[in-house]
Design goal:
Elements (H helix, E strand, L loop, with lengths): L7 H6 L2 E3 L6 E3 L1 H5 L6 H4 L5 E4 L2 E4 L9 H9 L4 E3 L7 E3 L4
Antiparallel strand pairs: 1-6, 2-5, 3-4
The chain binds iron/sulfur cluster (SF4) (2 copies).
One iron/sulfur cluster binds next to helix 4.
Length: about 100
């Protein structure tokens, strides 16, 4: 059996997502407007958060469910993120554990 060394992007591409139309992440734009660090834009490995026309946009479909954003937002940002586990059956299934 050959074990090919895969890049991070290729590994992530092997995961399976069941996308929920209802987002498991909420962003409080009022808090975000006062947030100077906007740390959510830098910590998310899946680049779920983007800044568009001075507003934080959240593409929850790409979330890897690592939990980093909420911790970072609540410690170094203004606490605008409310993160819940995706509803049952939705979210990511990891191929490599
Ligand atoms: S870090 Fe939190 S409060 Fe700051 S912009 Fe991002 S989501 Fe909003
Ligand atoms: S839980 Fe992880 S992957 Fe999902 S939005 Fe937050 S930082 Fe990004």
């Amino acid at each position: 059996m050959s074990l090919e060394k895969l890049s991070l992007d290729k590994r992530l591409g092997l995961n399976r997502y069941e996308i929920d139309s209802q987002s498991h992440i909420e962003v409080d734009q009022e808090k975000c407007s006062k947030c100077e660090t906007k740390v959510c834009l830098y910590v998310c490995p899946a680049e779920v958060y983007k800044l568009e026309e001075d507003k934080i946009v959240c593409n929850h479909e790409d979330c890897l469910e690592c939990g980093t954003c909420q911790i970072a937002c609540h410690t170094a940002g203004m606490g605008g993120i409310t993160w819940n586990n995706p509803r049952g059956g939705f979210g990511i299934s990891y191929r490599y554990g």
